[in-house]
């Protein structure tokens, strides 16, 4: 990524719109120079349901971040979410000529072959993410370019979304005066923000619990190999509190954030909450509040576990640890309950390796926005690494290596190639006919002269 380049991440969530403006410092560290978060109610479960409200929230968030950063924003990387987003893994194969090194064109050809799967015309591809490569049966190869072999294989993780919801999302961003560089899967962006160096050696499960959805990303040695969206999030927890206690949704959200706990035993035993039920003041303990919260959080974790077990296998075998991120995971007791349900090491995922306003954004609620900035850097550093949709092309002419290492065998054509001839008025004979007024030479005597010579020799 270029030094002093301004990049923008726009996280459009169910309950809020977050804008983060970053700049790459001379030391290569990503400095956060602007951020802003505004509430939004134009999104439901990751999908735009009100164009005007969503556009207005984007404008407000962008304007506030611009004031903090002191720069004007024209384009941004935008998060994409919702239950319409699906993912699949496809296998691609490319044959390599004998004694040839694997070239970039060969890699692109293998990726292109992996894309040759039937897709519904109502969906579009968001990401084509190559996993590790296999050369002649040798697995776990990160970069096969320059290696020799005759068989190149790759597994590609393809992320797709419905055309309609994605078009509505782009329209909201464009009407706010911003050009969307690219739509990025929210779980992918969150993972890029919270994975640390040791996570790139293992398989890690990232769970991003937002307001309307829970996004799942399984990263195998740093590569996103499985993703899914569960249409349940923090708003459902708030709805349970509001329904059971018969209080307004806004009041339920307030007490959830301040006193809520996923495990009742961790709740403050001495505090009492004053709430208004049907116009009557009453009180409730944080312990009782947590007993309302725990079943819904346990349900979310059970759905996550069921998704991984069904798609990949037993979660305890597939993954080595769990990272919790997203605003809802900031609630007390989330890590303890996740550790109990998954029986794996669990930690809270906070964005790291930041400069500038890092004290404001080094929290789980900013993971997606920071991950969008990381994604922008990945695009510039590795433009054909598969971080985005890859269009594999086969070169029309052989590479210099192919020219030097393979000499074409001459081809003998069984059909004679006709030579250019001169069309004459008389049949062509092996002798040359003397022109008029010119005496014939010995090699071109007339019939009468040759007859005289024969009789002369006879007598």
Automatic annotation (TrEMBL):
Residues 7-194 form the SHS2 domain. It comes from the Bacteria. It is a peripheral membrane protein. Residues 381-391, 428-439 have a biased composition (Polar residues). Residues 381-445 are annotated as: Disordered. GO terms for cellular component: cell division site; cytoplasmic side of plasma membrane. One of its GO terms (biological process) is FtsZ-dependent cytokinesis. PANTHER family: CELL DIVISION PROTEIN FTSA, CELL DIVISION PROTEIN FTSA-RELATED. Belongs to the FtsA/MreB family. This is Cell division protein FtsA. It comes from Deinococcus cellulosilyticus (strain DSM 18568 / NBRC 106333 / KACC 11606 / 5516J-15).
């Amino acid at each position: 990524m270029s030094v002093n380049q301004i990049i923008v991440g726009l996280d459009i969530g169910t309950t809020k719109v977050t804008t983060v403006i970053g700049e790459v410092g001379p030391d290569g560290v990503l400095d956060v120079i602007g951020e802003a978060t505004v509430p939004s109610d134009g999104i439901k479960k990751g999908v735009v349901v009100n164009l005007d409200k969503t556009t207005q929230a984007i404008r407000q968030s962008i304007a506030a971040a611009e004031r903090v950063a002191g720069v004007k924003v024209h384009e941004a990387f935008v998060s994409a979410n919702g239950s319409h987003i699906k993912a699949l893994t496809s296998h691609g194969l490319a044959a390599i000529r004998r004694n040839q090194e694997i070239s970039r064109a060969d890699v692109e050809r293998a990726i292109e072959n992996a894309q040759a799967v039937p897709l519904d015309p109502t969906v579009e591809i968001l990401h084509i993410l190559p996993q590790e490569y296999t050369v002649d049966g040798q697995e776990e190869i990160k970069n096969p370019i320059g290696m020799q072999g005759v068989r190149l294989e790759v597994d590609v993780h393809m992320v797709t979304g419905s055309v309609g919801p994605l078009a509505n999302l782009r329209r909201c961003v464009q009407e706010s005066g911003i050009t969307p560089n690219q739509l990025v899967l929210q779980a992918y962006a969150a993972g890029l923000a919270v994975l640390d160096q040791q996570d790139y050696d293992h398989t890690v499960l990232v769970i991003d619990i937002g307001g309307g959805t829970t996004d799942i990303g399984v990263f195998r040695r740093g590569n996103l190999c499985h993703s899914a969206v569960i249409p349940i999030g923090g708003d459902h927890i708030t709805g349970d509190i509001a329904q059971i206690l018969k209080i307004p949704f806004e009041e339920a959200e307030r007490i959830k954030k301040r006193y809520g706990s996923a495990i009742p035993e961790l709740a403050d035993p001495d505090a009492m909450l004053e709430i208004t039920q049907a116009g009557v003041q009453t009180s409730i303990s944080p312990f009782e509040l947590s007993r309302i919260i725990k079943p819904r959080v346990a349900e979310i974790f059970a759905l996550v576990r069921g998704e991984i077990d069904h798609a990949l296998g037993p979660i305890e075998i597939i993954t080595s640890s769990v990272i919790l991120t997203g605003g809802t995971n900031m609630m007390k007791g989330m890590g303890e309950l996740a550790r109990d349900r998954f029986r794996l090491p669990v930690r809270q995922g906070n964005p790291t390796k930041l400069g500038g306003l890092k004290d404001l954004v080094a929290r789980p609620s900013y993971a997606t926005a920071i991950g969008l900035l990381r994604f922008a850097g990945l695009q510039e550093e590795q433009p054909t690494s598969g971080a985005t949709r890859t269009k594999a092309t086969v070169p029309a002419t052989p590479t210099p290596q192919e020219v030097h290492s393979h000499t074409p065998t001459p081809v003998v054509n069984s059909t004679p190639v006709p030579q250019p001839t001169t069309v004459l008025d008389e049949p062509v004979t092996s002798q040359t006919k003397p022109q008029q007024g010119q005496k014939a030479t010995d090699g071109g005597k007339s019939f009468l002269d040759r007859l005289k010579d024969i009789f002369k020799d006879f007598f």
